[in-house]
Amino acid sequence: MKIFLDTANLDELKKAAAWGVVDGVTTNPSLIAKEGIKIEEQIARICDIIDGDISAEVISTTAKEMVEEGRKLAKIHKNVVVKVPLIRDGIQACSELSKEGIRLNVTLCFSPAQALLAAKAGAYIVSPFVGRLDDIAQLGMELIESITTIYGNYGYTTQVLAASLRSPLHVAQAAEVGADIGTLPFKVLDQMFNHPLTDKGLEIFLKDYAKAFETSK
Ligand code: E4P
């Protein structure tokens, strides 16, 4: 499973890039707003840090405007994937832009039926939100499983990106049910390293080694 970082923060991206485990980035209008820099500029900076798919989301709500905005976003860098919401106009914009060779991430997907529409509209990526479904007491991971089954049944090439992942457990479960991509906040990526037995084991190895060579002097 590819790991994307769900952030527009450059410091977080630089730190994670150094670990060599980040395959791409997703952003949304809220994440861009948090950084206080206009989308065109911030996306260009992100593209300089991470060499992979970088999702940049439109803020228009009509198909016509989304198509125009999408074309502009796609021109920022060859790695930009244009993100559109899963509404009627978003699906229309996806159909039109995908025919022009622009890659689309259809976001805010909360049902298998919606995911089917995204695939039929030629989406490069669909983003079902796991955490936000869990928040309303629905099993978000079941949606990922259902979409991977449907896409598998018909050979749709749209990649399933498990979004709104809130914990290392979510990441592991998304990988288990066959998500192509998981996008996670920096905090969750950092938490994925942690295991008390790793820390304890390393402490013992280093202590044993130091003891052996101190006594042999
Ligand atoms: C996906 O692309 C979204 O930006 C993101 O995963 C949403 O996560 P949240 O529900 O934690 O805000």
Order of helices and strands: EHEHHEHEHEHEHHEHEHH
Placed side by side, the strands forming the largest sheet appear as: 1-2-3-4-5-6-7-8
Mean pLDDT: 97
The total count of strands amounts to: 8
The portion of residues forming beta strands comes to: 15-25%
Total of DSSP H or I helical runs spanning 4+ residues: 11
In one word, what is the shape? Answer: globular
| Secondary structure category | alpha/beta
Structure description:
This protein has 217 residues and is an alpha/beta fold. An eight-stranded parallel beta barrel has the order 1-2-3-4-5-6-7-8, surrounded by six helices. The longest helix is centred in the C-terminal third of the chain and has 20 residues. It is globular, with a radius of gyration of 20 Å. 39% of the residues are buried. The model has no long low-confidence stretch (mean pLDDT 97). Bound molecules: erythose-4-phosphate.
Write a brief structural summary.
This protein has 217 residues and is of the alpha/beta class.
Keywords:
217 residues, alpha/beta, 8-stranded parallel β-barrel, 11 helices, 8 strands, 54% helix, binds erythose-4-phosphate
SSE diagram, text form:
Layout: E1 2-6, H1 10-19, E2 24-26, H2 29-35, H3 39-49, E3 53-57, H4 63-74, E4 80-85, H5 88-99, E5 104-109, H6 112-120, E6 125-128, H7 130-135, H8 140-154, E7 159-162, H9 168-176, E8 181-184, H10 186-191, H11 196-215
Parallel strand pairs: 1-2, 1-8, 2-3, 3-4, 4-5, 5-6, 6-7, 7-8
Bound molecules: erythose-4-phosphate (E4P).
The site of erythose-4-phosphate has 11 residues, from helix 7.
